[in-house]
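Thread: iron/sulfur cluster complex, take 2
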Amino acid sequence: TTCYMCACRCGIKVHLKDGGIRYIEGNRNHPVNRGVLCAKGSAGIMQHNSPARLRKPLMRVGERGRGEFREIEWEEALGAAVEWLGAIRARDPKELAFFTGRDQSQALTGWWAQQFGTINYAAHGGFCSVNMAAAGLYTIGGSFWEFGEPDWERTKYFLLFGVAEDHDSNPIKLGLGKLKGRGAKVVSINPIRTGYSAIADEWIGIRPGTDGLLVLSLIHELLRAGKVDADYLARYTNAPWLVIDDEHAADHGLFARGSDGEPLVWDRKREQLVSARDADARPALSGSRTLADGRRGTPSFELLAKRCLDPRYAPDAAAVETGVSAATIKRLAAELAHVAFEEAIVLDQPWTDCKGRRHARMIGRPVAMHGMRGISAHANGFHTCRAIHLLQMLLGAVDTPGSFRYEPPFPRLIPPSGKPAAPKGASTPLSGPPLGFPQGPEDLLVDGAGNPLRIDKAFSWEAPLAAHGLLHLVIANACKGDPYKIDTLFLYMANMSWNSAMNTAGTMSMLTERDPATNEYKIPRIIYSDAYYSEMVAYADLVLPDTTYLERYDCISLMDRPISSADHAADAIRQPVVKPDRDVRPFQDVLIDLGARLKLPGFVTAEGAPKYPGLYPDYIVNHERKPGMGPLAGWRGANGGQQGVGEVNPRQLERYIENQCFWQGEIPPEGRFYKFANRAYLEWSRDMGFRDHTEPVVLQLYSELLQKFRLAARGHGSVQPPPQHRDRVETYFDPLPLWYPPFERESDGYPLHAITQRPMAMYHSWGSQNAWLRQIHGENLLHIHHERAAELDIADGDWVTVTSRHGRISVRAKLMDGVNPDTIWTWNAIGKRAGTWNLAAGAHEATRGFLLNHLIGELLPPREGGYRYANADPVTGQAAWYDLRVKIEKAAAPLAHSEPAFKTLAAPALPARPTVLRYGANFRPPRPDA
Amino acid sequence: MHPAFSVIVFTTMSGAGYGLLAWLGTWAMMGGLPVNRGLAAVSLALSLGAITIGLLSSTVHLGHPERAWRAFSQWRSSWLSREGVASVATYAPALLFALGWLVIGSTSGIWALFGAIAAVSAIATVVCTAFIYVSLKPIQRWNNGWVLPNYLALAAMTGALWLIATTSLFGLFDRGLALGALLAIVFAALLKLGYWRFIDRTASPSDAGTATGLGGLGRVRLFEAPHTSENYLMKEMGFRIARKHAAKLRMIALVTAFVLPLLLTLAALLVPPSLGPLCAIAAAVLATLGVLVERWLFFAEAKHTVTLYYGAERA
Amino acid sequence: MTSLPTHSSGKQLGLVIDLDICVGCHACAVNCKEWNSGGVAAPLTDLEPYGADPLGVWFNRVHTFEVGVGAAGRTVHFPRSCLHCAEPACVTVCPTGASYKREEDGIVLVDEDLCIGCKLCSWACPYGAREYDYDAGVMKKCTLCIDKIYNETLDEASRVPACVATCPATARHFGDLGDPDSSVSRLVRERAGYDLMPELGYAPTNKYLPPRARRTAAADVRARAELAPVAPAGAGGFLAWIDRLLSG
Ligand SMILES: Nc1nc2c(c(=O)[nH]1)N[C@H]1C(S)=C(S)[C@@H](COP(=O)(O)OP(=O)(O)OC[C@H]3O[C@@H](n4cnc5c(=O)[nH]c(N)nc54)[C@H](O)[C@@H]3O)O[C@H]1N2
Ligand SMILES: Nc1nc2c(c(=O)[nH]1)N[C@H]1C(S)=C(S)[C@@H](COP(=O)(O)OP(=O)(O)OC[C@H]3O[C@@H](n4cnc5c(=O)[nH]c(N)nc54)[C@H](O)[C@@H]3O)O[C@H]1N2
Ligand code: SF4
Ligand code: SF4
Ligand code: SF4
Ligand code: SF4
Ligand code: SF4
Ligand SMILES: [Mo]
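Output below.
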């Protein structure tokens, strides 16, 4: 089956003995993990064995937020849900906010929301790494995250930006092992030197939030030295496309286009304007030209070069903010250029590009980059991530041998097709998925006055490219009724009253706040599905208990977050390996059941009977989103002989199980690189159903799409931002790369940066119930550079008070050397609320553990005009967790427990905690030598 | 090292018991051990009682006391096993010696020989006990030349003090013995001081650098222990005692184990005979208590190399 | 039998741990616990597993050290388990014969049925490789996954210790260190693998491969320290030049 101790989705073999789980082992054949298993995955037995597992549906009794429930039967639970949701749907579907946290079935949940008719749907990506995803998708049609990977086999130089663990947990470790084994150079850019940074050949202890500046400075150096892959830029990117230069026009900054609508380039040979699609074009990368209408057009590359050659991006200037010395920046640029150009890789693999040109070889630039939340969890993360992709492009290092590589179904068109669906009326499904990719201001979800239509304000002027929604704002907005009130908050798998909330204490009170007029809760109803007694359960009115990952079917679909690798497409399933011993049901089953009971289109037959009476497994096999395309790509067609596209195969699940629960489809060798313009790949991926055309993907050095928003802010077009948002949109929708300091500032009186890291042996909040993992990370400390600590008279183990503009915590300190001196940090999500997770009173998670979240406000301070924007990236709405600024001081005296401490929650009926755990005693084989 | 109560009691009690037995046996062998049933009863009870309590206490500390008998099997390699064998083996001559002295009323001839054998076995047992510690290379504060003489001297000292106490109780106070005891106290005190001086001044060959092999790269400091929770290793071997605290306890041990017994023994020589037994008993009791403190320190101050993996920079 | 084998078969199975690539992920520690929880040393009891002070038996623990400071400073992850020493005093001190070293492959084991729980062997182990199971009253330790590496019900490729099979960074290697031609022995030679606390004379079988020197000089990747400008300063100079870079 497939592991679910984190989102990496490794293949596992679960060995059973006498009905119990004897051993969970990595599946050596599995493309994701190749047999290895991380610490979390290895502790799966204890997750399954957790005494915090919910046992039965629960209905709240007493006040919300106390943890007092009565157990109810499923019929009653589903009946209540149908009654609440049915009424909403008949009234106004968007009064349901359905947010699904760390959901691996978004293809189902999103579709359910669409059929229900609510636009208020998203998973957790908005506070996770939408900057990474959006910047990538809007720039190269793919991204880091799990949508691409370095060419681990060939890379000679690897830059890792802000990664502690990643979603690609095991693949990154396997890859780093390979790189180090081969002697490739690994550079880790990270304020903290642990984990991957510890084994890097070079650690750059950058100041948080300044990577964009560092990258633009590297670009500055490369440009100055002419170390760019000009041919690559001219062929595969929009570098030669001419940008209209007409300051006050409505199309200023857009591409000059011919009568066929195709962008124009200047042909150096023919000395004329030609279509960028022209296979014989010899486009120029510099030089302003006169367009047909007499205006001037400049290749976007020239605009980019001018931007980046500006002295503010010179290494000496960048050194000041980044804390990385000018000499180091210069050297890194020189090393990148050397490896990319002097140590290029040549594969003797002929291929044909999208313009029909045959190439005898594949040229590889063996420098690869990867980044994650250290980049994206900042308010400048979108542009920083874009800058990293531009750096790759300039080096000709996108999807070439040795560089970053796309994983199918990527690359997608830029941006991917599918716009966020607009609201429809009562009892009506949306015309498409609620989430999507706006292509311009017209695609925003705003009303005539420019106000947000979604509860989380995604796709509004405050977060126009919020491709993953903004889960971090739902509760605050719903509580305020801004932009409107909702009726029911339906959450799945998101610990929103604790570690995934900014302003945790505030969030808890918003969840319980009542309207003084009616004495009703401001968020009238909360339905929640969790598998364990987490902090969030206590805030639900109706709890739908889920199974553990070993007790259900799941589908890791290419329509969702795929598990492909650069050489093949892949998807997988989970199958139940043990039966639940409690009255719990897989959430996906419940959702399909609810869909049928609510008679949502697609969930019922024409006669109104349930369409998927076999629930999720039935849906996985029989659901078709488009003809021939369903959740799983493998073994399609009546006899299982087709892949990608093919009619429903009733035996599909059996085929998956026979094949160790995963499927892979190999990319033909000719199609494995230059996927954006590789005919073999484009055709293959069309045949697989990933695209319905073979249009190439042109890498966006210059983002015309961003310029469209900027033009709107300048008063052009039919959809324009309301006046108070204009400056902001104008500033941040820059078509060229840009670095600006994050919005939390030292000048507010908080000199230090405060960030968190994922511990490799713990998954957010849900590892603390794990008897093994909690021995490793049962409490956390605040790590401080020893020199900074000495200045503040802080010693190891001292209690310190940390204050931000938003809040204050008191915790214990631990000194270290390997951290940027202006940065303090801790492991994420170790602190727990007393009473939860079936931990005993006094558990250190609650008494000594802590969250930084109490210090992080969900809104920025009122600045210009008094408006409080979200503490987020202005382009995507990505939560800016790591912008946090603090000051610390030694506590006057040691404390009995970390602060703040919250009232102990009551718990529903959970099994007694064992005081001695002798797991496995019954499996013991005869002893050797006995 | 964690100063486990059972082991401290065991080594102290068995030390005193074997010390006393050794003196009795030696006295018998040299001739002149008074045939006094009272003295025999009390001193043998004290000696064998202490030994037995000690042994029982060490057995209780086992995870599987019912399997304790297995510990006799590995005398070829294990000092613990040898100690077990020696301690049990000592009972045979000791009981025969007791039979002669207490029941038959003879301390000469064959019965003296049993006494002599008991004395030799007793000393051998104490040597084995000492070697259990001496042989542990991970604990440099035990793995040195001072430990064996210390164990022997302290056993001799406490044994001698108990001998004087019992003899004086039966009006058999002997000045020669008392002088011998004074000598034993001074000798043991000097050895103890020598031991402390040694452990204060001698660094173990192992440090965090050699424990990890990373010493060549710079000073090695623990950043994160493998678990935030407790573990057996740190409970058992991670015991740490503050320098100040140790100094205080050393002073207490010094005064109780040596200085006061010395003064009281001197007093026993000087005061009227009616008060002699009181002084002698007080000396023996205090010395035993003092040795308990000394033994506690012997464990508490011992540093195991495993602590190098948990933040200690030297073991 | 606690006396060491008088003649060895020459085979000495053990682990080689590469500190240069260990990322400190604890996978080896947890997977070890998982495998052994149902193995010959089962259970690896956890006391108060959900309480304030959980205390469990582990055969493998991963420490993190900082070494040196500033530019010379580095962080090193350090897994620690039994080293299956050639001169294991943990064996010779055992009074019962419960601790023994196998003649055929050098693995050091505890026979729990003989163990009286005196803990002396754990005192004798410099490396902290033995853990007492308070609940079972016996000593436990790394078995080198003897019930896995010789397990005929498993396929060939699975017959390696759990910690080795699971290590995501492939920092752990298993093999016969008694055979100078084995892949692990070669690795040790090539990378100057070393013993922990050689001064104590236990002659550990397991070896550690040292972290490699950092590569922070341009010369380490054969590059120059900085790039030379192609043209006089300013955008114009470079731009006039860029199109010459284009082929065709
Ligand atoms: N300070 C700080 N805060 C952060 C971050 C940070 O870096 N720093 N990171 C942010 C990011 S990126 C993320 S993604 C979030 C993560 O935070 P969350 O999304 O809240 O993730 P978890 O805490 O792992 O838990 C989600 C819930 O899922 C439940 N669950 C587990 N398994 C199952 C199951 O099988 N079925 C069901 N129905 N429920 C299950 C768990 O019990 C838990 O209550 O935290 C965010 N918060
Ligand atoms: N074991 C484990 N694995 C997980 C998770 C888990 O909880 N546990 N969570 C999963 C989830 S939801 C996510 S989103 C991913 C996230 O995976 P990562 O992105 O690896 O997660 P973070 O721990 O947030 O790592 C951020 C890293 O960026 C660094 N950093 C912070 N600010 C900056 C900066 O300004 N510049 C640079 N260069 N670095 C910076 C931090 O020091 C940290 O090392 O991990 C997933 N995998
Ligand atoms: S990385 Fe670990 S927890 Fe995540 S899926 Fe893989 S084995 Fe499971
Ligand atoms: S590491 Fe310790 S337990 Fe293992 S053989 Fe060596 S001394 Fe014995
Ligand atoms: S604890 Fe068991 S294995 Fe260890 S020395 Fe004692 S009897 Fe031997
Ligand atoms: S060899 Fe086996 S028992 Fe030993 S540390 Fe590795 S997994 Fe644990
Ligand atoms: S599994 Fe490998 S990388 Fe992870 S801690 Fe163990 S040895 Fe290190
Ligand atoms: Mo995340």
